[in-house]
Write a structure and sequence with these properties.
Aminopeptidase, alpha+beta, 19 strands, hydrolase activity, zinc, about 20% strand, Alpha-Beta Plaits, about 35% helix
């Protein structure tokens, strides 16, 4: 692909920055939050907007709701989520033929903004301050999704005919665990390479850690604090089990290693128990997060795959062992409820798609590196169900995830558009107009 085309891409982005910012502002304006960890969601407004936008771009648009009875068979499925008025929107841009296909996946849902009065400006009004774009979803991940859409729009504006197909998936319920992308895979969407535009500061990440959300409840015996010896304090028993889990984390930090990813962790996220200071609590519920690796070095320094079930079993065994050493817990054991899971994936760093993504990124950002995403995302279903090579690469900042005053570097947003446009050229390829057969067409 000639340098003149790439220069035209760069110059067009510079010219269109105000329009691109306006598009992102539109996306951020939609309160597309999930509710109750994804059981419900408010994605309808933004998805209706994107349906119309894709149609104006000339795409083949497919809007559909996940069907639990169809996707419950897949690993990573999250149960008890409802999908009335919640649709995935998939746009397919057909190429002229002869090129590789590219799937670009991004989620439109966001987590709630929390106390809106704590924000410097409204979380649903994207504003620029000191070179950063503020608003809920700028980093996670309306910025990345918007940049991918704008890259395709840019190539259409320049009338560059592509050889291969481009599929853009705007999915729901990623923040609830990933059922939206699972439904896309079940519907048959596949490509020769898949990119997720999650925040990486434009590092190329071919692997991520998986995550389990889990809880257990400890039962006790309620009494007045003055006669606490007659009761059993469920909170104190829960602390004993929390300490047991933290010992597992300490062991993992010392023994589990990966070339791109940080060590697995456990986070105690919520403790709920008791009715008042003068009452011995009869129940305590603990919610926790487990972040785990797709593979790890064995004693001979060979990378071996990790079975996610082994992680669950290890946590349950540690709790069983702790319960066995306590007379009350021995007769009142706890069982972990694994209520949400986001599995991990790992694409070989030497795979041609990974190397192409790195090359495309370095055309714009010469210092771009390979790294790993330390949290869950929708890469696993694309990799495990869709059997596609997957990379994660987006303009946002991991440190901004789910924060008050969430923001993204403005220049990274515009650079992401340029990187994605270059990736499309490098991976999908182009055709010369005169090479098209009579009657042959593409969406460009």
């Amino acid at each position: 692909m000639g340098a003149d085309i790439r220069l035209a891409i760069h110059n067009t982005i510079e010219k269109n920055k105000s329009a691109y910012f306006a598009f992102l502002k539109d996306l951020v304006s939609f309160d597309s939050r999930i509710l109750e960890a994804g059981k419900y969601g408010q994605e309808k407004g933004i998805q209706d907007y994107l349906k119309q936008y894709f149609q104006k771009l000339g795409a083949q648009v497919d809007a559909f709701s996940p069907e639990n009875e169809k996707i419950c068979k897949y690993a990573g499925f999250n149960k008890n989520h409802t999908y009335e008025n919640r649709e995935n929107v998939v746009a397919t841009f057909k190429g002229a033929g002869g090129g590789r296909s590219l799937l670009m996946n991004g989620h439109c849902d966001i987590v709630p903004p929390g106390d809106e009065s704590a924000w410097t400006s409204s979380p649903f009004t994207c504003v620029e301050r000191n070179g950063r774009l503020y608003g809920r979803g700028t980093t996670d991940m309306k910025g990345g999704l918007g940049a991918a859409i704008l890259a395709v729009s840019l190539l259409k504006e320049l009338s560059i005919p592509l050889a291969g197909d481009i599929i853009i998936e705007s999915v729901i319920d990623e923040e609830g665990g990933g059922n939206g992308t699972i439904a896309c895979c079940d519907r048959g969407y596949r490509a020769d390479g898949a990119i997720i535009m999650e925040p990486t500061r434009m590092a190329v990440m071919p692997a991520n850690r998986g995550a389990f959300l889990a809880r257990f409840t400890v039962t006790g015996r309620q009494t007045h604090a003055a006669t606490k010896g007659l009761g059993v304090n469920a909170v104190e028993k829960a602390i004993k089990l929390i300490n047991a889990i933290k010992e597992v984390e300490t062991h993992w930090l010392m023994t589990k290693k990966h070339p791109l990813l940080s060590n697995p962790t456990v986070n105690i996220g919520k403790i709920e128990g008791g009715l008042g200071a003068s009452i011995v609590p009869e129940a305590c519920t603990v919610d926790f997060d487990v972040e785990f690796l797709p593979s790890e070095y064995d004693k001979d320094y060979r990378l071996i795959a990790v079975d996610p079930q082994d992680i669950k079993d290890e946590i349950q065994r540690c709790l069983d062992f702790a319960c066995a050493g306590d007379p009350w817990l021995c007769s009142h054991p706890v069982t972990v409820d694994w209520y949400q899971e986001t599995l991990c994936f790992e694409t070989d760093a030497e795979h041609p798609f990974v190397q192409t993504a790195l090359k495309s990124c370095r055309r714009v950002l010469p210092g771009a590196v390979l790294d790993g995403l330390p949290c869950g995302c929708d890469g696993a279903p694309l990799f495990r169900i869709g059997k596609m090579p997957v990379v994660i690469m987006g303009p946002g900042d991991l440190e901004e995830l789910h924060t008050t005053d969430e923001s993204m570097d403005a220049e990274k947003f515009y650079q992401a558009i340029e990187v994605y446009a270059n990736l499309i050229l490098d991976w999908v390829g182009t055709v010369k107009t005169e090479e098209k057969k009579e009657g042959e067409s593409c969406d460009y």
